[in-house]
Amino acid sequence: MTTSADAQIHQYSHINGSPEDLLNRFAVSELCKGWPVYRDASEWKNYRSLFCKEAMVWTTDRRCHVHPLPTTAWSKGQTIDNFIAISKRGKDRGDFIMHRECGTLVEVSQSHPDRAIGKMKATITQRFQTQGHQANVFCPAGAEFDVDCDCRFIFFCVKEKTEIGGTEWKAKYVKLFYEKDKVVPVDGNRAPTFDPELLASFPEGYRHLAAAQSALGYPVTRCLPTARDHGAWHAMYGKMEQWLAGSDVDLLCEDDGDDDQKTKENGLKRKDAAAAADDGKLPSDDRGDAVRVKTAVTNGYHGNGAPMALNCGLENEKNGLGKEISLESVR
After folding, report:
1. Is 276 a domain residue?
2. DSSP secondary structure of 103-167
3. Tens of pLDDT, residues 270-280
4. Which of 88, 205, 271, 281 could make an S-S bridge to 178, C-beta 3.0–4.6 Å?
5. Is 81 exposed, middle or buried (0-12, 13-18, 19+ CB in 10 A)?
6. How far is CA 83 from each of CA 47, 95, 129, 180, 252, rounded to the nearest angstrom?
7. Domain range holding 95?
8. CATH number at residue 156
9. Interhelix angle for 230-244 vs 290-299, to 10°?
10. Residue 2 has pLDDT above 70, yes or no
């Protein structure tokens, strides 16, 4: 869960205002809602029209469109055209992913009225079949289940000039906060068993979704912002305010790789951090990501106003001042 600290420093045009304010916010809200409406229905031309020419998106899936099951890391984001190609191929191979929009609000900058942030609460729901290694006496191989992941889509939007001299809102970047997820038995009874080490290797906000996607052979990024990762949470808000101030933003994120050994090592590190928190060795209210919370609390992003890098390594966490805190140094 998030902390009680206010996530945002400034206020922007978000409710009420002039007719122009209302129309701008409505246009951006309409743009955001196009993601679930158009992508889920394979309305690709409409979906593509939501984005700038060079738009980038970040999701859990790091697949490259060149190979069937690639090992190339796409943790630095994907162009929107690559993302559409990946989405099409996923549908061709049977991926069944839907999105439920749960509410959308928009902030428009008063100082830079061509900049806006769209905040869309949504639930990603994906249908899976239980794999052989996930089966148990109550859930045989082939039994269907869903994974529902509550999240917030953040749209970094800009008003662009059109070829005929008008203007229109487009999304330049899209990145998500992953808040919590759960396994949902389709028949109300049967759910698979996930390897605890595999689950522990992913952030709490989307670990069941990531584990289920991994079971299908997909490389899944491990460094997306979550409600438990308070450092990355506030860093993301810093990027949002930087965007509304008229600057471009760097949303790139280091990932911890694909190999199985590193996955196991990261899982053990998370367990060690959680155990240290339980023993009172770490003053953290976030046991799953104790090291990251320690980093965020120690460096106080909001206190100095410096932008915080969205680097997500567990062993060495960087803050906006370039300082590092290692796992050993906080034990």
Report:
1. yes
2. EEEEEE-SSSTTEEEEEEEEEEEEEEE--GGG-BTTB-TT-EEEEEEEEEEEEEEEEEE-TTS-E
3. 444 444 444 44
4. 205
5. middle
6. 11, 14, 24, 23, 16
7. 19-330
8. 3.10.450.50
9. 50
10. yes
Rounded to whole angstroms, what are the CA distances from 222 to 185, 195, 257? 25, 17, 8
182 within 8 A of 208, measured Cβ to Cβ:
yes
* 5 Cβ contact list (under 8 Å, min separation 6): 234, 302
Contact predicate 316/291, CB 8 Å: no
The answer to the question of residue 67 being in a domain is yes
The model's pLDDT over 151-198, given as tens digits with 9 standing for 90+, comes to 999 999 999 998 888 899 999 999 999 999 999 999 999 999 899 999
CA atoms of 298 and 326, how far apart (whole Å): 12
Dihedral in degrees, nearest 10, Cα atoms 89, 91, 94, 95:
100
Distance CA 246, CA 112 (A): 6
Count other Cβ atoms within 10 Å, centred on residue 277. 21
Closest by CA to 157, choosing from 40, 301, 30, 274, is 30
Q: How many domains does the chain have?
A: 1
- Cα–Cα–Cα angle for 241, 75, 129, rounded to 5 degrees: 115
Return phi, psi of residue 115, to 5°: -120, 140
Residue range 20-39, pLDDT digits in tens? 999 999 999 999 999 999 99
Q: Is the residue at 321 inside a domain?
A: yes
Contact 299, 320 (CB under 8 A): yes
Distance between the two ends of the chain, CA-based, in angstroms? Answer: 23
Q: Which residues of 28-56 are buried (b: 16+ CB within 10 A; e: fewer)?
A: bbebbbbbbebbeeeeeeebbebbbeebb
User: CB of 28 within 8 A of CB of 157?
Assistant: yes
